[in-house]
Design brief:
9 strands, alpha/beta, nine-stranded mixed β-sheet, about 350 residues, Rossmann fold, 13 helices, about 20% strand
Length: about 350
């Protein structure tokens, strides 16, 4: 029969097969949960805190391989730096900077440094989703949920570089992009957006550690939300970062498995506690708001307890603190985290 003359039995409604689709989704959920449990069991059995402490550099190398390209490649450096003065007051000068991290690929950010040019500790300040260096510096929207993050970091007598990651809110800051598509392209090259952005942070550190106004023995990183992720992941990769403050990100990653936060075989190797275990024994402060509408603090408690065990295997267990604060998805208004950070930086 000519297919154009065939009459399908189209007397069903769209709802008729709903039961089967629901069963299909239930099957998927059960399938994934089963294998997640198996992955958790393997990770907990093979990577105990004691074993981790004995083989931290091996696990760090595994972590870098998991994140992938370009962290796994020794790509050539760029040589050019562009600096444009923005503002200044009696104490600070703000400068927009483009740093060529690979040939013809520039990182962008805003440097806030003391005008006296004295050598000072240096902090990378990382914004979160829909954020920009301008936002966390208070150039727009009075710094939004960052609660004057850069100004408060400056109070510790440091110089600060706020780097742009591929996370800005298009409606407010212009320039359209699709982070998931970009991540897919990098995964096709054996990498990830996280690997690219961590590499960008590292190469900014390569530049700044050579500057006369930077005490390269006292470099740290602070971030909110996605920035909290970059703070922990970059410090897990790069031991030059001596102190870490991650706010409003740390959690049970299987509960918040966003596509650019999960990598091949991750649950068998690294969840947030193991990432923190790569930072140990360096100081790490983790904060999450009790009223955070994005990430339920209750899901983070067990993971935080696991991370504590990694620090218990060091001689400096007090260098890890997990703090649940009275707040939303924001940079904690209280000074607990920054006080801890400055104490050790």
């Amino acid at each position: 029969m000519n297919w154009t003359e065939y009459q399908e039995p189209n007397n069903e409604t769209y709802e008729t097969g709903k039961e089967y689709r629901q069963r299909l989704m239930n099957d998927f959920q059960s399938f994934v949960e089963n294998y997640q449990k198996q992955a958790d069991t393997r990770r907990l059995q093979m990577q105990t805190p004691k074993e981790f402490a004995q083989n931290r550099e091996k696990h760090r190398a595994d972590f870098v391989r998991m994140l992938g390209f370009p962290l796994t490649e020794n790509l050539p450096y760029g040589e050019r730096v562009e600096i444009v003065d923005c503002f200044e007051d009696e104490t600070y000068i703000w400068q927009r900077m483009r740093i060529e991290i690979f040939p013809n690929f520039y990182a962008y950010g805003i440097l806030t440094k003391h005008k006296d040019g004295a050598k000072r500790p240096f902090v990378m300040a990382m914004h979160g989703g829909e954020g920009t260096p301008e936002l966390i510096n208070g150039f727009v929207d009075n710094s939004s949920n960052y609660n004057h993050m850069v100004r408060r970091i400056l109070s510790g007598g440091v110089n600060v570089f706020a780097m742009q990651t591929f996370l800005w809110r298009v409606e407010s800051f212009g320039v359209d992009f699709n982070r998931k598509d970009m991540d897919s392209l990098l995964r096709g090259l054996g990498g990830s957006m996280t690997a690219l952005e961590v590499c960008m942070i590292q190469r900014c550190l390569d530049y700044f550690e050579k500057q006369a106004f930077v005490d390269n023995e006292r470099m740290g990183i602070v971030g909110l939300s996605y920035g909290g992720m970059f703070s922990m992941v970059t410090a897990a990769v790069d031991t030059r970062l001596k102190c870490v403050y991650s706010c409003s990100w740390f959690n049970d990653r299987s509960k918040y498995a966003w596509s650019d936060w999960v990598y091949p075989s991750m649950f068998s190797l690294f969840k947030d506690a193991e990432i923190g275990g790569l930072i140990a024994p360096r100081p790490l402060f983790v904060g999450i708001g009790k009223q955070d509408a994005l990430f339920d603090y209750r899901c983070a408690i067990e993971e935080a307890d696991r991370l504590k065990a990694f620090y218990s295997e060091t001689e400096d267990s007090e260098k890890y603190q997990f703090h649940i604060f009275e707040g939303t998805h924001e940079f904690d208004k209280n000074e607990d985290g920054l006080a801890f950070f400055f104490k050790y930086l």
